[in-house]
Amino acid sequence: MLDAAYYADLGLSSIYDKVLEGRRLEPEEGLALFRCPDLTAVGALALHARCRRHGHRAFYVVNRQINYTNVCVNGCVFCAFRRDHADDPGAFVLSHEDILTRLRAAEASALRLDELHIVGGCHPNLPLSWFEELLRRVRAAHPHLPIKAFTPVEIEHFSRLEGVSTRTVLERLQQAGLVMMPGGGAEIFDEELRARICPHKADATAWLRVSGEAHSLGIQTNCTMLFGHLESYEQRVDHLCRLRDQQDKTGGFTCFIPLPFLTENSRLKLPEDKVGPQRGLDQLRTVAVSRLLLDNIPHIKAYWIMMGPKLAPVALWYGADDLDGTIIEERIGHMAGASSAQGLTIHELEQMILRSGFTPVRRNATFTTLSETASTEARP
Ligand code: V47
């Protein structure tokens, strides 16, 4: 498939050369990849870049997600998870005890967890001390368990509520046990579109600044892009390049997760041409272009909850190297119509990876390798 003459016919000669030599692509080249009529040609380049970094290894994590509340002051138009007020139907806030009970049950059934992923809405009156105490109690009860918690949007919200800097918030949470931050809330950085879909949320500058502050404190973070809604290819490329620029400066992004927009129960209605079966192909293409443009971010996640358990492993052939994990309970995607299960077993995740021709690697929250299962199946 990696035939120079074929890429020349597609008008992608310089991209082909750069990918094979491991050189950086320009934004216009990212755009050309989004517009290329042959998705498999784009995928083959992304596979090359992915295998250069990770060979045929594919990562997963034994984790538990906890959403502590869905009450949120941001009112993002696309979000089906949020409730605007604490007394709205379906609104919830978990107590510390609820969270610890869920964790105990998860550890009892899932052997040993290697990541606890905690995120929630921006609640109008949970003070920073509530989160510090939560982290301390989790750390006391589960000292081995790496805690990945709070997006840059939540950090910015805690800082505004508390009247202290985002840096101080990060330092206090780090003291209490935070080791890693998830990448949610980035949505799409373009200011004009952000003003339409999430006008009250921390803006692009704040999101990137908080990520950089976390990196400077030694907290690794992830990053995301919500796509497949109203954004153009130009806005996707702009988003990816802003992440790449930030990474050049502060270097702490570990994994990028492209999140395909799920439409159910959302107030954001899509035009006719944006819905339909071609969306799966667009997801594979977006994974591939992300792998090719984000030359300085080590991992690309095909999040099986949002992409679905059939398409996510296919994305391993299009540049992704991680599928996320066992999860156990997920709300954000499921309230927006995700038809995937709530969780997968270790066996199911490993089989998914093996059947796709890759070698499963169990990792923890910060992507430290814990164990590798030898592949028994022939690779296509
Ligand atoms: O911030 C909200 C997105 C994110 C919808 O860092 C939606 O390892 C699709 O960020 N359709 C939360 N997406 C999930 C997230 C995440 C998940 C797994 C791992 C990591 C990580 C991060 O989900 C939100 C928002 O960008 N989202 N609504 C929707 N209807």
Automatic annotation (TrEMBL):
Its EC number is 2.5.1.120. Its cofactor is [4Fe-4S] cluster. It comes from the Bacteria. GO terms for biological process: menaquinone biosynthetic process. GO terms for molecular function: 4 iron, 4 sulfur cluster binding; 7,8-didemethyl-8-hydroxy-5-deazariboflavin synthase activity; aminodeoxyfutalosine synthase activity; iron ion binding. Pfam families: CofH_C (PF19288), Radical_SAM (PF04055). Residues 58-298 form the Radical SAM core domain. InterPro entries: Aldolase_TIM, CofH/MnqC-like_C, F420, FO_synthase_su2, MqnE, rSAM, rSAM_sf. Keywords: 4Fe-4S, Iron, Iron-sulfur, Menaquinone biosynthesis, Metal-binding, S-adenosyl-L-methionine, Transferase. S-adenosyl-L-methionine binds at F78, E187. The keyword Mitochondrion does not apply. Pathway: Quinol/quinone metabolism; menaquinone biosynthesis. [4Fe-4S] cluster binds at C72, C76, C79. It is an enzyme of class 2 (transferase). It catalyses: 3-[(1-carboxyvinyl)-oxy]benzoate + S-adenosyl-L-methionine + H2O = 6-amino-6-deoxyfutalosine + hydrogencarbonate + L-methionine + H(+). Gene3D superfamilies: Aldolase class I. Binds 1 [4Fe-4S] cluster. The cluster is coordinated with 3 cysteines and an exchangeable S-adenosyl-L-methionine. HAMAP family: MqnE. Belongs to the radical SAM superfamily. MqnE family. NCBIfam families: CofH family radical SAM protein, mena_SCO4494. Radical SAM enzyme that catalyzes the addition of the adenosyl radical to the double bond of 3-[(1-carboxyvinyl)oxy]benzoate, leading to aminodeoxyfutalosine (AFL), a key intermediate in the formation of menaquinone (MK, vitamin K2) from chorismate. This is Aminodeoxyfutalosine synthase. It comes from Desulfovibrio legallii. The lineage of its organism: Bacteria, Pseudomonadati, Thermodesulfobacteriota, Desulfovibrionia, Desulfovibrionales. The gene is mqnE.
